[in-house]
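Standup notes
- DV: blocked on the single-chain target, sequence here:
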Amino acid sequence: MKIAVIGAGSWGTALSSVLAANGHNVSLWARKPQVVSSINKDHVNPRYLSDSVLPASIVATTSYRDALRNAQAAVVVTPSKLLRGVAQALDGVVEGGFPVVICSKGVEEGSGLLPAQIFHDELGDACSVAVLSGPNHAEEVVKGTPSATVVASEDAQTAALFQTLFANDAFRVYTSDDVTGVELCAAFKNVIAIAVGLSYGLGYGDNTAAMLMTRGLAEMSRLVESCGGRRSRAWGWPARATLWSPACPGIRATGASARCWPAAGLCRRSATRPIWWPRAPTHARAWACSRPPSAWSCPSPTSFAAWCGTGQIPGFWPRSFRRARSS
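- DV (later): unblocked, structure below
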């Protein structure tokens, strides 16, 4: 089966390797010609995961049309800020409920739309959309380290298709119909990760990190529910919690926070910016806010967590932690 993978970053390269290892022919779209040349000649991505040799069944190209020609499904793995442009480029190329799984995380700045909503907005019914997210590091997935992820789609057949394409002995794939919940978890876990990284950078210990993660997950539950996520007792969650797969990306916070520690250290030492969290609570708004909140001292694509839904949803720091600091 030919699969088009749009995006040759670390995650796109890792997922291409998984698909190729499962016996599929992968057409990998990359923006830079030198990346395409290296993958096709040396089977190595020179920019990402360069210590891993890729299967010969991965063929790279700089053309969307070439990547999608005769493909039976597409995997979109580009930064979230580029998703609308990718969807526009696919308009007229895909049709008839073409299956597409979006592996990008985040929220579109300005519109507040999630990745799947961006594709529906641009392509309508031309494609059948799923989203993929999980507590995964690309460098471990490409090496075959046992990992798990979740594919969510409102269409059960689309979710099952991508589960079949990706699943193998080292990469377990769960399915869900809660697209909103999975996408919000993917975005919100970055907020938790930054908070954990900042807490270590400010000199706090494991107790503080554990508090941030547990209270952050509680806020994640309320956020997803307020934005239309599923409610269920499944997987041991309380009745008001959202139905999340065991592969919910929120539990990746500890690993992702390591990338935030250098910034946290600079934040602590900076005389001009002694703090790096909202200066005041931001009033949450409904789905399609006209602009991102103005109270953030450091803009983030995941700042949507501060203003989506109803009530007041704080930014980087859970309510309990902000109260503790102010007392």
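- Follow-up: The first helix runs from residue 10 to 21.
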